What we know:
Blueprint: H1 7-13, E1 20-29, E2 36-46, E3 51-55, H2 62-69, E4 77-82, E5 85-86, H3 92-102, E6 103-107, H4 118-128, H5 135-144, H6 160-172, E7 178-182, H7 190-207, E8 210-214, H8 218-221, E9 226-231, E10 234-240, H9 244-255
Parallel strand pairs: 3-8, 3-9, 6-7, 7-8
Antiparallel strand pairs: 1-2, 1-4, 4-5, 9-10
Helix pairs in contact: 4-6, 6-7
Amino acid sequence: MFRRRSAKQSAEGNGAVPAVQLDAVSKVYGKGGSAVRALRGVSIAIPRGTFTAVMGPSGSGKSTLLNVAAGLDRPTDGRISIGPTELSKLNATRLTELRRDRIGFVFQAFNLLPSLSVEQNVTLPLRLAGRRADRRAVAEVLERVGLGDRRRHRPSELSGGQQQRVALARALVTEPEVLFADEPTGALDLRTGKEVLGLFREAVDNLDQTVVMVTHDPAAASYADSAVFLADGQVVGSLRDPTAEAVAERMTALTDGRP
Length: 259
């Protein structure tokens, strides 16, 4: 397995500008009496080269936080930055370019095109951006996720875990500044989920990748450098170098309505 760095070590080694920063971010859906306040003044700074798990009970605002942090949705109030770039200052076209060029995404659904091979699925973001795929770089990222011998296979010829590895390779091939993952192991069995989480850990430790992962699973969160907890749209705590046991205890308290 790969050597695990602490969040403090990663932050010290990667400069002062956070990879992702949210300042007093709020998100409200709807208006008037039917309005739903999904986020309430959330402020978080995520250091470069770290693995952060975002956790909380159902309806706590986890996925909303990921969506606004990644530029998939705009906040109602507050400021969000990817590196030195403030997202509110970008128009729709520039925001699309930022997501394409500087952010990677891995979701619970693999979102692979069934008619394309593994290699073609991985290089699709590059082709859509009008960038030529470096065959050596593509081969390297496929080897990293354990699919070097499956590059010509179709998604239907792969297991669920292998398909998620394709999704991860697709996210990594563009060399993003930040990789956002939303329940990436939710559709996988325990063993396969551990393998995929190990690849996220490797990307942080060996490639200096920044990973922000929404999860409900305490075991998944234990792969992270830190865990941030939400409740009712607010940050209510965090853990450095979380263990599955400590995360489960905190989640039980939040589900029971305790701080």
